[in-house]
Design a protein that fits this description.
This is LacI family transcriptional regulator. Keywords: DNA-binding, Transcription, Transcription regulation. This protein is α/β, with parallel strands linked by helices. The protein folds into three domains: 53 residues, 434 Repressor (Amino-terminal Domain), CATH 1.10.260; 124 residues, Rossmann fold; 131 residues, Rossmann fold (3-Layer(aba) Sandwich). It is 43% helix and 17% strand. The protein has twelve helices and twelve strands. The chain has a six-stranded parallel sheet with strand order 2-1-3-4-5-11, with helices on both faces. The chain has a six-stranded mixed sheet with strand order 7-6-8-9-10-12, sandwiched between helices. The longest helix has 16 residues.
Length: 327
């Protein structure tokens, strides 16, 4: 099957068929559609090397991540692949493991493969140094924004997500709400804590126990922290946790203390990590950062940048509250 067969079925010249299949030239939309339909009927796929030479593109992009566990980068990758697959673009996944030397190595390898662009992601939302000085292709930063406002960054709106979680607890009649979260040095912990305080203040409430409890992003900290909270405020009736891991640890700790969830204390997490949120007892109400959508939007933003239509700045995507039995 050749492009001449496609041209004959579509009733156009070989040159017109080539322009339509490679998205070149000034053709009427009906002509492009007719050629595309003929190619589908015949099962024709253009030679990738010829396609690359004609367009000056490799139809590949790199996805660079610091998240070696894959908890955050894999959903982003899947969302990006869904968007890029429609344009028959392949994705190379490179894990830097947070190592600057490994990152340079992967950037060199991606450049040698002539990728059309790169999506950079990671496991945290702290801003990161830009890569512009190492690359001459478009870069989009997903999850962790670039420090340079001239770059294109797509991030979850953690402020909005935290407010949704706290408002849900207030709407359920909870008035003595505590917040247990991760390390104070992390951007996510600070943003979620600030949103927690502001949302309580708007309702005329103060944090139960007096202060936000910063610690670690893990279950042992959740189990330990609930004891501190109930010692400081025995009448606490709700916990907003900075992650699902913390929330699951808190749920275990409360159960060990004979405290009923949600009867005595309602519980909200953050991340909607299935391993934690659905295995929690009871299943956890939590905030979903919609990482698949984040990956899709990052991929579409990269395609725009590749086509010379980059939109610099930070774009924040809304989070979604997922209500389960813990509230």
């Amino acid at each position: 099957m050749t492009i001449a067969d496609v041209a004959a079925l579509a009733g156009v010249s070989v040159g017109t068929a080539s322009k339509a299949l490679n998205n070149r030239g000034k053709l009427r939309q009906e002509t492009r559609a007719r050629v595309a339909d003929a190619a589908r009927q015949l099962g024709f796929r253009p030679n990738e090397m010829a396609r690359s030479l004609l367009s000056g593109r490799s139809f590949t992009v790199g996805l660079l991540t610091t998240d070696h566990v894959g908890r955050f980068s894999l959903p982003v990758l899947l969302g990006a692949e869904d968007a890029l697959g429609a344009g028959e673009i392949s994705v190379f996944l490179c894990d830097t493991r947070g190592d600057a030397i490994r990152e340079r190595h992967h950037l060199s390898a991606l450049a040698s493969r002539r990728v059309d662009g790169i999506i950079v992601t990671g496991r945290r939302t702290d801003s990161r140094p830009p890569l512009r000085q190492f690359l001459d292709v478009p870069v989009v930063y997903a999850m962790a924004p670039s420090e340079d406002p001239r770059d294109v960054s797509v991030v979850p709106d953690e402020w909005q997500g935290a407010r949704e979680g706290v408002r849900h607890l207030i709407a359920a009649g909870r008035t003595r709400i505590a917040h247990i979260t991760g390390p104070a040095r992390h951007h996510s912990a600070q943003v979620r804590a600030a949103a927690f305080r502001e949302t309580l203040a708007e309702a005329g409430l103060r944090p139960a126990g007096g202060e936000v409890m910063f610690g670690e992003w893990n279950e042992p900290w959740g189990r330990q922290a609930v004891r501190h909270v109930l010692h400081a405020e025995p009448r606490c009736d709700a916990l907003f946790c900075g992650s699902d891991q913390i929330a699951r640890g808190a749920a275990d700790g409360l159960r060990e203390m004979g405290v009923d969830v949600p009867g005595d204390i309602a519980l909200v997490g953050f991340d909607n990590w299935d391993v934690m949120s659905t295995a929690c007892r009871p299943p956890l109400t939590t905030v979903d950062m919609e990482l698949g959508e984040l990956g899709r939007v990052a991929a579409m933003s990269l395609l725009e940048a590749i086509e010379g239509r980059a939109r610099p700045g930070v774009r924040r995507l809304p989070c979604r509250l997922v209500i389960r039995d813990s509230t």
